[in-house]
């Protein structure tokens, strides 16, 4: 028994079924989390290995490479990035989607254990961990005070605020900028030290010897057991001043004789300014699995609570919150959803001409959409931009089933059938067509779940939600549709209003005109083949003309600026450059400017490199400014183009809010020197191409360094160890935490160093002295020589090969595919045998997607064909239907070309949906023509009558789809770019395929339809054969 028959026999059950679909959907929706994108589990495992005192080249050969060699046998690895720095090896392993990350972490730990025997004996233990954070802060808090010094405010932030926010649910870590730790500095005077025959080692030993806090045992008696503890003697500056280092000729030498002691900031070279006001920044990094909207709400609630306890004069404000974009984008999608639903219902009323007939599809739409949320809940999905986009597209699809059924029931009612028989036969006749189109649509979306990588994870939810909505619409249309029609059509059909009457008259005229034109078209037997040939040729050239990208560039409401100097750039020089840039940008923050908040940090957020700086610029609300984010980027480039001492690189945050460096082109080889020469050539060509901006290489071998060579013979003769030399230089040139001291129950570092003024050039190292084994004071220059060299501080591997990464932003109007194709061509002409190139970041995601998209579309089309073949019980009828698909694809691609939109993952989604949409019209015509042939009509008469009678529902479904796409075409605000990318494909593709299909499908059916039959004809033939055999 068909589903529509069952509903007519059991109408109460049909109503209950649809109520349950809505009820479960509402419950599911209320329990779904809200996110920007589907939840993607972090698939990165990191390995960190400290190797104190070793140069990057030593770390690369003795630490990084042995560990990489052991990683090669681990299953499921996608990419391996490694970096070797002075004293540190870092390796990031990205696993393929779906891989068991618990197993991955275990495999990596085993590999590191195997590598341990190949590492130097004095290397520290490696740290293996799964990256559970999002990587970059999604919120920044500004902390200011009118009554506290910077050090006092830093101390409060470090002791209180960081702990408070770190403990909030969903927070992974806290990044800081402008925040410093209170320390007690012991600034050594090297000359005073030498004059007293002392070295830094003497001070270290005295501090370790005297400043102790140790248990000293117990005092016990019959009733008490008391712990005895030796307290620290040194708890304030005065105590450390009197610390005795040595006694010479009976005269004590105190620390104040050879050093200046004071309490200060651990890292004084850090600046954070918010709107030109000295401030401190806290960057909130969420756990990867956490819902950023919920974490943001929690942070805001905590701020409200903390404001009651903040010290007087201290203010904490949220200056940057990336969830503003998420909330705005989701709000805009809800608005688009509502407008789309209104337009669709309005066009239905115009076609159906009566309120009672419009009610049925108007009811099936919310049933279908809401029911999909129950599936989302069962699958563990969320309400996000992708799933809501699926529901916007679903509106034009889910209404179609109800439209064709209501229209067919109306036709039977108009021909004199009773309400119950009109509902019964009207739904039964289309039971096959509705189920066929539903299966085709679902099978079209099914290939999306086979996509791998980040893109596959994103659009699995899209495919499942859209399929759930379409299946729900079929159930609703075939159950509640005929049941409601019987009740609503029980009275004679009322005359429609004047507007609907005029519209209906025009549709009737159009039907007659269409029949006339169709008769003429059918006389040209092979015109369809000619048009399809032109279509395939046009499809090829249209695809070649596409500007290809991973995603459209979005206005996310903020702009970032990376500022970079040479690696030798000092902190003071960087601050001057940042202030210069800030002064140029401040006019944009005026009342009539596009900028709402202008923050900068030197060094860059999350970095201690003095030569880097970073701006976070929050733009005014989309409705409060005339400039887009890309226009603001161009304005910033114009304002800073003559800043020459540093590189100024403004950009819009990229896919998912990440780095704006869409281009990441990785050169690989065995020799850094040659590789760097090729990379420089490629960088110059990239700059001159006009396709890319802000090009840079992650490898720089020109960083000035002082290379200290130890005269081992002299050191051996004087019995001075290399460790003694390294330890002394570490203290005097860099500083070292030596011990701890306590203030009000909180412990702080005691930092041993020399004042920076003592060492301004390498000649000042002559002030450094060491003790020989006999206690004699020996000048450091007696055991070392110094060379001024240039080298790279970081050495990088990609996929276990030596690599240099060329990074760049895209020039305005340039697609990622165009830039990468240019680099591919240039690299092929530059690189010799033995050298290669690869992609990273967004560039890798783009190429991974491009490799799969062709197969994806072929698979979708082939699956649709197989489903239709099973439904039609014929391998010929599906050919007629499927040949309309290229028309839809061509229309979609033409729309992209005309509007200048890129061929990206969102437009690809639209094209995939078009495959299903394009087949629906053909299915309606071919299936009804087969029914008429079963009634004895010829193929010609059957297709002519079927096309004319199905024109009205085809126009209804087409216009609902076209009108449903209009809100996406005129969208503004957050996320408008992605909605437009889908909308233009749907609109232009549906426009072309609807018009041409009305002539192509009948012509093809007339040409080859005689060689096929309907499933019912096959059943009747078999029944007749069985009876004859009896």
Question: What's this model, at a glance?
Answer:
The chain is α+β, with helices and mostly antiparallel strands. The mean pLDDT is 81.
Descriptive notes:
By secondary structure, this protein is an alpha+beta fold. Among the domains are: 44-130, Multidrug efflux transporter AcrB pore domain (Alpha-Beta Plaits), CATH 3.30.70.1430; 139-181 and 267-321, Alpha-Beta Plaits; 183-265 and 703-791, Multidrug efflux transporter AcrB TolC docking domain, DN and DC subdomains (2-Layer Sandwich), CATH 3.30.2090.10; 333-495, Multidrug efflux transporter AcrB transmembrane fold, CATH 1.20.1640; 558-652, Multidrug efflux transporter AcrB pore domain (Alpha-Beta Plaits), CATH 3.30.70. The chain contains 30 helices and 31 strands. The strands form eight sheets. Strands 1, 2, 3, 4, 21, 22, 29, 30 and 31 form a nine-stranded antiparallel sheet that branches. A six-stranded antiparallel sheet has the order 14-13-18-19-17-20, covered by helices on one side. The protein has a four-stranded antiparallel sheet with strand order 6-15-5-16. Helix 11 (323-352) packs across helix 16 (498-522) and helix 12 packs antiparallel against helix 15. The longest helix is centred in the middle third of the chain and has 36 residues, at 453-488. It starts with a helix and ends with a helix. The model has no long low-confidence stretch (mean pLDDT 81).
Q: How many helical stretches?
A: 30
Proper CATH architecture of the domain at 183-265 and 703-791? 2-Layer Sandwich
Per DSSP E runs of 2 or more residues, the count of β-strands stands at 31
CATH-assigned homologous superfamily of the domain at 183-265 and 703-791: Multidrug efflux transporter AcrB TolC docking domain, DN and DC subdomains
CATH fold description of the domain at 183-265 and 703-791 = Multidrug efflux transporter AcrB TolC docking domain, DN and DC subdomains
